[in-house]
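Workshop exercise sheet. Pairs work together: one partner reads the sequence aloud, the other fills in the structure field after running the prediction. Swap roles for the next sheet.
Pair: D.N. / O.F.
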Amino acid sequence: MARSFAKAQLVGNLTRDPELKQLPSGNSLCQLGVAVNTRQKDASGQWVDKPNYFDVVVWGAQGEACARYLTKGQQVAVDGRLSYRSWESQDGSKRSKIEIVADEVVFMGGGQGGQGGGSDRGSHAPSQKSDVAPADDFQDIDFGDEDDIPF
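Structure field:
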């Protein structure tokens, strides 16, 4: 039998500020709402944006970073998997939803948050220092006789 999978990749804007929760187990869970526009023609033939809304769950330190640095309106890229869950509500009705469990969240900047950023696998904070070395850090290398270079 072939292995199955349900992957999701999206780039969109946060519909609300992230919500961080601490579970009794000690794990952190951050919930994001992400809107992604799809362009389609309406009945009159005009192109319009149709928003699609997705619930995203981010676990652990990556979720804590999302809660700390992201705000409503900011653009993010999410790579993750689809997950179905169901529960019984307080009134006894059965409820279900499909959400994206993020493997990686990239802070894209833009929107109201305005902070740039990068992949959330390493440093979570938008860097205050430039990642580019100053020009005086580079030195010329003397290769001697360039005929000795084998390419």
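Discussion prompt: The first strand starts at residue 7 and ends at 14. What would you look at next?
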